[in-house]
Amino acid sequence: MAEIVLRHEASAIGLRDRLTVDSAGTAADVGFDIDRRARRALERRGYGPISHRARQFQPAWLKARDLVIAMDSTHVRWLGNQAPKTGPTAPVRLLLSYPTGRAGQFDLLDIADPWYGNNAEFESCLDLVQAGCSALLGELAAELTVS
Length: 147
Description:
The protein is mainly alpha-helical. Helices cover 42% and strands 4% of the residues.
């Protein structure tokens, strides 16, 4: 969901050509289409068309990316454990670590995986993803217009 939201919102503010957005899981069902509940939540909010195939995050990408965004602290730990032991790697940040302007609404910076949940949990997850993507793009927009 975050890849789709981030790509859509980046395009809406004119940053589409300045950013490369992709996603991969730490425990992905490689090759499968986006979860039907995630698709429905995204489509209800006007995101589309949706094209996505799951893939596994490759540790070498930590050297090839400028920034890696994680949804929860277990992802951050997994990425840290997978990081190459030599040379620089991309910073890894939680999506909700960017100021969302919704102070007090988040007890944690983790976005829970709604996989075992119902449609309402996918909607709640999407609320958090949208807030985090908006905050992230606000910061990136400032950086990209300066450089």
